[in-house]
Each structure stands twice: as structure tokens, then as C-alpha cells.
DNA sequence: TTCCATCAAAATCTCGAAATTTAGGCGAAT
DNA sequence: ATTCGCCTAAATTTCGAGATTTTGATGGAA
């Protein structure tokens, strides 16, 4: 793994989790010192990240983290539904036992984590683990779709989605509903029911579309 | 427009049309001389292009244009159908008169060009114009979808698709069928029939999925 | 107080060169 | 004739400096 790529991955991960505030400026100069490399190297990496939308570039004004936007979360959720539903349907057709095994394994990990979350006093130490497990489950869903282009596209959308969502305090408020929905997706997929699986994926992601409605009355 | 961005757009355009051969190495050193800038600047641009898949980066071995792959064309076509059908359906719901006007205009331009193509002796001078007009028509279809994220994603997929397809000798073999299909898409969209529009978009792009079957018997 | 010009500090942007790595040719040994 | 290792040329990667631009603060005028 090259130097460039290391920094690229490190920054991408930080941008997807909680390393930066929305709208905050990304100071290439500071990162240069932190990573101990030249400004050009940082600049390269930031340009790469700007191409997929994880940072915004403005001429002569450097890079900054995109503002959080309810509208953008909607758009990215919509794309996720589109890509994940299609990718999962393709996986059901092409997948086979190996895929079913991977999916069951991913769900088991996630499920196990969510169970522990329900009874935990302090959810903080689980946050990173849960996000990883959730990502793993959703990526496994589409992993047998046979289209690298679809997986790549989904990955980009997913990164931006995760960045927009960041860590919400209410992340685990609906954990029991999450457990139920993940189980339903798994069941439908294992039963080979494409239509039902699409439907359940839509339902699962739709909560991000509902957020506005929830808040309106408050 | 910044220097960086100029070079980015120039190279992207060249990669999408016929500036490079598939699999050919992209020599940063040569481009540096051609564009009269430093190696770092070229490198930045190439990294950006690699993030969306227009060039491939291999550590210590520079950048190269992706190989042409029938499978990849299939995958990108599939994504185009997914994104364009959805985006157009949204445009039908949200778009209004302004969008209908834009779409009619784009189709008129394309249609006019295709008519001239049919009767032209030498199609070569029309190629670039036609590709631009076709892109314009398809981008206009989704232009009122209300989702920047969908438009951005479609743009990336479209760039890669165009690069994979490049200029085929047979580009205009089916020009009369193209005219008919574009007209059908326009009619369905103007009639506000989402389902029919989706269907016609699928039919129109499906010819890229059929290419294998066509060639198999030969 | 508010607005605007000026100036200094900090950040961005581009470049050319040095260090590192790959690519390809040449000749010797099997 | 083929293979292997060496050597040179060419390409890459990284860096730090200098030029340019933005940012933020200070001070004077309305």
C-alpha cells in the first residue's frame, strides 16, 4: 500500500466517522504536519476525496467538509435504496450458497452486536463496531451482484451518506426496530423473494426519509 | 475556472472521446510538457480521474486507460438504465413546463442532427456533435429530478460508459432505430407516463446489452 | 457605532529538482 | 537459442521553496 493511499484511506475514514465538523475547513497545512508529508501529497488526496463528494473544493479557498443537509440525506438515501435493492435482487439470482453463508454470517455479527447494545448502559464503545457491522451487512447484501460498477457506485454513495448522517445521539433509539428490519431483510433474501427483499430494504432505509416528518410537529 | 480544473476537464473529455487507446499508459511526464505545467498538477488531475474510474492508478507504475470490457459496458449500461429511468420518472413528477420545454429543445437538436446524419455521405464531422447532443438529451431527461446526488452519480457512470464505448464504426448503423427510440422516450415523457418512459429508456439502452448476442453467431 | 481601507499573517498554488523505482537493452553464461 | 543479471534511460513520487491569494486584525473616517 502506497503512502498516498494510506493517507487517502485514513482521511476518508475520518471524514466518514466523526473526525470533522460539517462545514469545517480542512487545513491542508495542518494535515501536512500531522501526517508528516508535503503539501502536494495532502492536496492530491483531498482532490481525490473531492471527486466523490467527501470534501468540497473551492478555488484558492482550499477544501471544506460539506454542510449537513437534510435534502442531501434524502437524495443519498434514495440512491441507496435504488442501488441496494437492485444489487440484492441480483445477488439473490446469482449468489448461491457461498453468498447466503456470507450474508448469514454478517447478519449474525450485526445481530449479536445489536443484542448487546440493547442491554448496554453505555452505548458509546459500541458505536464504531456497530457502524462497521451495519456497513458489512449492507455491502454483503449486494456482494454477489456481479457488477463491480454497481458496488463501486454504492460505496461512494454510502460513504457520503455516512458522512452526512455522522453520529446521531438518537442512533440507537430505534435499535429494536432495526433488529426486526435486518431480520426481515435477511429472511426475505434467504427465501429468494426478490420483490419482498426490495420492499424490506426500502422500509429499512425509509426512516431516514421520515426524519423531517418526525420533527415537523415538534 | 482554475488551471487544475481546465486540465481536469480537458483530460476528461479526451478520455471520454477518442484521445487515448484502451489499456494505453498515460504518461504524466508527456502531459506535463503538453500542458506546460508541473508533474504535481498533472498527478492531481489524474488522481481525480482515477477516483471516478476514467483512469486506473497502479502504485509506482503510473496511470493507464482501463481496458475495454464487454462486461463493464454491461454493468454501466445497467446502472444507466437504473439511474436514468428513476431520474426521468422524478422529472416527470417534479419538472413542469420549463422541463418539458428543455426536453423538447434537446430532442429537437438531436433529431435535427440525426436527420442530417441519415443523408450524409461522410458521417465523421457529425460524430462529436451527435455525441454531445445525445448526452444533452439524456442529461435533460433527468435534469428536473431534484437530486444533485443522482445527477452527479449518473454523470460519473455516463463518463465511464462513453469511455468504454468510444467511437464504434457501427455507431450510426442503427440511426433510424435511434431516432424512433428517442422519439418514443420523448412522447412517453411528455405524456407523463412514468411506467412507459422507464420501459422506453430500458429498450433504448438495451441494445448495448444485446451486442454480445449479435456477435455470437458471427 | 458602523463601514472601509490597509497591512500582516497564514494558507493556497505552482514549480523544478532530488530521490526512488521501473523498463528495456545488452552481453555473458548455461 | 534461451535465460539471467547488470546497467542505463525514463518514469514515478516526494519534497520544500517561492509566488500568489485569502484571511483576519487594526485603525481611521463617516
Task: Describe the protein's architecture and organization.
The structure is a homodimer of 218-residue chains. With 218 residues, chain A is an all-alpha fold. Chain A has 2 domains: 3-64, Winged helix-like DNA-binding domain superfamily/Winged helix DNA-binding domain (Arc Repressor Mutant, subunit A); 70-215, Up-down Bundle (Four Helix Bundle (Hemerythrin (Met), subunit A)), CATH 1.20.120.530. Helices cover 71% and strands 3% of the residues of chain A. Chain A has helices at residues 3-16, 28-35, 39-51, 70-94, 97-119, 127-141, 148-165, 175-190, 194-215, and strands at residues 25-26, 56-57, 63-64. The first copy, chain A, has a 3-stranded antiparallel β-sheet. In chain A, helix 5 (97-119) packs antiparallel against helix 6. The radius of gyration of chain A is 19 Å and the shape is globular. Chain A starts with a helix and ends with a helix. Chain A binds a DNA duplex (30 and 30 nucleotides) through residues 2-4, 27-29, 37-41, 43, 59-62.
Summary tags:
homodimer, about 220 residues, mainly alpha, Arc Repressor Mutant, subunit A, Four Helix Bundle (Hemerythrin (Met), subunit A), 2 domains, 3-stranded antiparallel sheet, 9 helices, about 70% helix, DNA-binding
Give the termini separation of chain A: 50 Å
Work out the oligomeric state of the chains in this entry.
homodimer
Biggest interface, residues from each chain: A-B, 34 and 34 residues
Q: Give the overall shape of chain A, derived from the CA principal axes.
A: globular
The stretches of 5 or more residues of chain A where confidence is low (pLDDT under 50) are none
Task: Enumerate how many helices of chain A there are, as a single number.
Answer: 9
Q: Helical proportion of chain A?
A: over 70%
Portion in beta strands of chain A: under 5%
Number of domains of chain A: 2
CATH fold group of the largest domain in chain A:
Four Helix Bundle (Hemerythrin (Met), subunit A)
Spell out the CATH superfamily of the largest domain in chain A.
GntR ligand-binding domain-like
Tell me the total number of β-strands of chain A: 3
What's the CATH architecture name of the largest domain in chain A?
Answer: Up-down Bundle
Amino acid at each position: 500500500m502506497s503512502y498516498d493511499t494510506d493517507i487517502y484511506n485514513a482521511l476518508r475514514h475520518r471524514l466518514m466517522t466523526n473526525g470533522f465538523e460539517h462545514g469545517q475547513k480542512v487545513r491542508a497545512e495542518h494535515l501536512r504536519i500531522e501526517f508528516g508529508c508535503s503539501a502536494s501529497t495532502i492536496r492530491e488526496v483531498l482532490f481525490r476525496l473531492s471527486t466523490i463528494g467527501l470534501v468540497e473544493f473551492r478555488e484558492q479557498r482550499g477544501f471544506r467538509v460539506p454542510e449537513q443537509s437534510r435534502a442531501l440525506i434524502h437524495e443519498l438515501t434514495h440512491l441507496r435504496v435504488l442501488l441496494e435493492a437492485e444489487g440484492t435482487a441480483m445477488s439473490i439470482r446469482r449468489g448461491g450458497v457461498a453468498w447466503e453463508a456470507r450474508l448469514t454470517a454478517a447478519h449474525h455479527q450485526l445481530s449479536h452486536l445489536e443484542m448487546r447494545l440493547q442491554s448496554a448502559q453505555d452505548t458509546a464503545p459500541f458505536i464504531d463496531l456497530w457502524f462497521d457491522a451495519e456497513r458489512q451487512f449492507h455491502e454483503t447484501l449486494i456482494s454477489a451482484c456481479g457488477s463491480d460498477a454497481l458496488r463501486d457506485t454504492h460505496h461512494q454513495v454510502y460513504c457520503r451518506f455516512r458522512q452526512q448522517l455522522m453520529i446521531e445521539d438518537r442512533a440507537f433509539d430505534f435499535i429494536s426496530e432495526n433488529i426486526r428490519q435486518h431480520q426481515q431483510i435477511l429472511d426475505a433474501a434467504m427465501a429468494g423473494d426478490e420483490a419482498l427483499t426490495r420492499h424490506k430494504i426500502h422500509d429499512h432505509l425509509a426512516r431516514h426519509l421520515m426524519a423531517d416528518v418526525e420533527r415537523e410537529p415538534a
